[in-house]
Amino acid sequence: HGRADVAYDLLLQETFPSWIYPITMGATTIWERWDGQKPDGSFQNTDMNSFNHYAYGAIGDWMYRVVAGIDNAAPGYKELLIQPHPDSRLEYVNASFDSSYGIVESSWKMDSTSVLIAVQIPPNTSSKVVLPNAVDKMVLMNGKALTIHSEKSGANLVLKLGSGKYEFEVER
To answer: For 69-118, what is each residue's pLDDT tens digit?
Structure first.
């Protein structure tokens, strides 16, 4: 809902509440409560404190759709929306899956000067690719200045692409 920054906080901070907090406490499964074990090592009330409770296990979908930016724009991934949301707290993200048309992939890598975004769009499909914070920035596509038509959406550039592999470098 437009607050990827808050969702990243909930993913990455090591204190409660977060997805990482249980891991810092030794978790190897999804807990029923994010604070099932307190920082002092004591436990919450055992009436509602399962340490193997998948009900809150939906972070993977968000990581594909928002962090890597892979989403469907039509049934069966015939049309894709690739809209990654890079965050400087992560250096690199790579996600892929095998759709009925072939491999869909989105990755990004961030350094101090640019964001590198690579996408793979399978045969017989198309995609809108949204390059974040790319308006009025230097953008390279496959190592050359971006020359194809793009639309502006706020600070983002939106490209309509057919199947293939593409690499973008966006100035930070």
So the answer is: 999 999 999 999 999 999 999 999 999 999 999 999 999 999 999 999 99
* Number of alpha helices (DSSP H) and beta strands (DSSP E) in the chain: 3, 9
Place of tokens 């793009």: 150
Give the DSSP letter string of 66-134: III-EEESSGGGSEEEE-----TT-SEEEEEEEETTEEEEEEEEE-SSEEEEEEEEEEEEEEEEEETT-
Q: CA 130 to CA 17: how far, in whole Å?
A: 31
Residue 31, judged by CB atoms within 10 A of its CB (0-12, 13-18, 19+), counts as buried
**Residue 46 corresponds to which amino acid?**
T
In a domain, 63, yes or no: no
Asked whether residue 88 is assigned to any structural domain, the reply reads yes
Tell me the per-residue pLDDT of 8-29, one tens digit each, with 9 for 90 and over: 999 999 998 888 898 898 888 8
Q: What is the pLDDT of residues 33-72, one digit of tens each?
A: 878 888 888 888 888 788 877 765 678 899 999 999 999 9
Is residue 50, in this structure, part of any structural domain at all?
yes
- Give the chain's domain count: 2
How would you classify the pairing of strands 70-72 and 79-82?
Answer: antiparallel
Residue 61, domain member (yes or no): no
Identify the domain containing residue 91 by its residue range.
Answer: 68-171
